[in-house]
From TrEMBL:
Entry keyword annotation includes Nucleus: yes
Gene Ontology terms describing biological process: mRNA splicing, via spliceosome
Localisation: Nucleus
Biological classification of the source: Eukaryota, Metazoa, Chordata, Craniata, Vertebrata
Domain of life, per lineage: Eukaryota
Annotated family: Belongs to the lariat debranching enzyme family.
UniProtKB keywords: Hydrolase, Iron, Manganese, Metal-binding, mRNA processing, Nucleus, Zinc
Gene Ontology, cellular component aspect: nucleus
Protein name (database record): Debranching RNA lariats 1
Bias type Basic and acidic residues, positions: 486-496
Gene: DBR1
Length: 517
């Protein structure tokens, strides 16, 4: 099947679908599925904007509301995960995932409004309960999505080219602190065939060869790909051919193993702010293994009447933005989404939002919403993680990212995007363009993280600084596909524009596609 993967969307659905349509006209056929790696920004109205974890001056309506209202419909089935710039109150209605618009599905988190400046951040934190549940999976995984990169993944790709493009990553790369430690742990544990990420606003590919646990067992490998944000002349979209069972249905289905794990770990859900650790085999817990057994999966299957189809039960739960009637003082309400209610009732698990509502009423765990973005308190009513993810840019500091505590005017510091000027934008053409980056050769994680002149993969680099060589999938197919860029009405200048930091243009209320961020 043909799968398109997008980096940070930042609410630019119209632009993404336009670029996808152009790619389909140029390519061998239609795309079957679109995967978005976070910062999706499913903003329905002005109240949603106030719950987005960005400074108020960057809160501008993009184009998602048109798909929510039914004015437009996504032309391809779209699945997305959350990032660190989301409409927190909207996504919290669907802690187990669900439809945010027809043909657009969110892959599951929770928090509760009204938000203060701490909880508006904690909505995107990595929780130990989420990592714990994912580590119960035993069956092979084809595709894993994360917003931030797994820590250390840059040591398995063309690190030299990465640092040439993003020189301000050097210290974190050398200290091995760039990326998410939780994602790295999951990568080592789950060993998926593909891992797609975004967040750091640069295209980067790597191939991680895992070690076989037992002798005679075939070692698995993960093909990693991170993509840029949705801007002109940037590598934000990639189309891949991925093996797919031709007899499988053409609609979404729940995974029986994951449903079984959700049901087994239901008693571990914690909606208070108290710190606690997950069960482990240390003699202190009666149970520590919550993986799905054949018997438990059979029980869940029977509970669902052997029907794993995801119901198309989207419903409008909040008023939609009307450009002709702006409502800057729209009230923020904690809503219970009927999709979540139905899912929890079918599976026999806790409706997290109902529990949060009761906890709020009984113990007042959620404070009043505050507009101030400089409060750094952490009494967020969340299930905290043992991983250090409490930064405005997840666990990775990226100067090209909006910081929640930034001042009104950023300093006149600039970041060069030299490598982007070598990559053409998508335009109709009869000839296939060359791929600007490839999956790199397998490399062993070095003992020293210091980047030297020869500390890079043994890949050919052409005069434009693009790594050569290819990596093939199991069926011998070349994975080096044409990178897709956002459409632009203007030609690329001879000398690349200097780019201001922190995504300023993404959140600016302008229509010029060439404004860089």
């Amino acid at each position: 099947m043909r799968v398109a993967v997008a980096g940070c969307c930042h609410g630019e659905l119209d632009k993404i679908y336009e670029t996808l349509a152009l790619a389909e006209r140029r390519g061998p056929g239609p795309v079957d599925l679109l995967l978005c790696c976070g910062d999706f920004q499913a903003v329905r109205n002005e109240a949603d904007l106030r719950c987005m974890a960005v400074p108020p001056k960057y809160r501008h309506m993009q184009t998602f509301y048109r798909y929510y209202s039914g004015e437009k419909k996504a032309p391809v089935l779209t699945l997305f995960i959350g990032g660190n710039h989301e409409a927190s109150n909207h996504l919290q209605e669907l802690p187990y995932g669900g439809w945010v618009a027809p043909n657009i599905y969110y892959l599951g988190h929770f928090e509760c409004p009204p938000y203060n400046s701490s909880t508006i951040r904690s909505i995107y934190h990595v929780r130990n309960i989420e990592v714990y549940k994912l580590k119960q999976l035993k069956q092979p995984i084809d595709i894993f999505l994360s917003h931030d990169w797994p820590r250390s993944i840059y040591h398995y790709g063309n690190k030299k080219q990465l640092l040439k493009t993003k020189s301000f990553f050097r210290q974190e790369v050398e200290n091995n602190t760039l990326g998410s430690p939780a994602a790295s742990e999951l990568l080592e544990h789950l060993k998926p065939t593909y891992w797609f990420s975004a967040h750091l606003h640069v295209k980067f590919a790597a191939l991680m060869q895992h070690q076989a646990k037992d002798k005679g067992q075939t070692a698995r490998a993960t093909k990693f790909l991170a993509l840029d944000k949705c801007l002109p002349h940037r590598d934000f979209l990639q189309i891949l051919e991925i093996e797919h069972d031709p007899s499988a249905p053409d609609y979404l289905e729940y995974d029986i193993e994951w449903l079984t794990i959700l049901r087994a770990t239901d008693d571990l859900i914690n909606v208070t702010g108290h710190l606690w650790n997950m069960p482990e085999n240390n003699g202190l817990h009666a149970r520590w293994d919550y993986s799905a057994t054949e018997e438990s999966m059979k029980e869940v299957l029977e509970k669902l009447n052997h029907d794993l189809k995801v119901p198309c039960n989207f419903s409008v739960t909040a008023a939609c933005y009307d450009p002709s009637k702006p409502q800057t003082q729209m009230q923020l309400i904690h809503r219970i989404n009927p999709q979540t209610t139905e899912f929890c009732a079918q599976l026999g698990i806790t409706d997290i939002n109902v529990r949060l509502q009761k906890s709020k009423e009984e113990h007042h765990v959620c404070g009043e919403y505050e507009e101030q973005d400089d409060v750094e308190s952490n009494d967020s009513g969340e299930d905290r993680s043992e991983y250090n993810t409490d930064t405005s840019a997840l666990s990775s500091i990226n100067p090209d990212e909006i910081m929640l505590d930034e001042e009104e005017e950023d300093e006149d510091s600039i970041v060069s995007a030299h490598s982007d000027m070598n990559t053409p934008s998508v335009e109709p053409s009869d000839q296939a363009s060359e791929f600007s980056a490839s999956f790199s050769d397998v490399r062993i994680l070095p003992g020293s993280m210091i980047v030297s002149s020869d500390d890079t993969v043994d890949s050919t680099v052409d005069r434009e600084g693009k790594p050569g060589g290819t990596v093939e999938s199991g069926n011998g197919e070349d994975l080096t596909k044409v990178p897709l860029k956002r459409l632009s009405d203007e030609h690329e200048p001879e000398q690349r524009k200097k780019i201001k930091r922190r995504n300023q243009a993404i959140y600016a209320a302008v229509d010029d596609d060439d404004d860089a961020a």
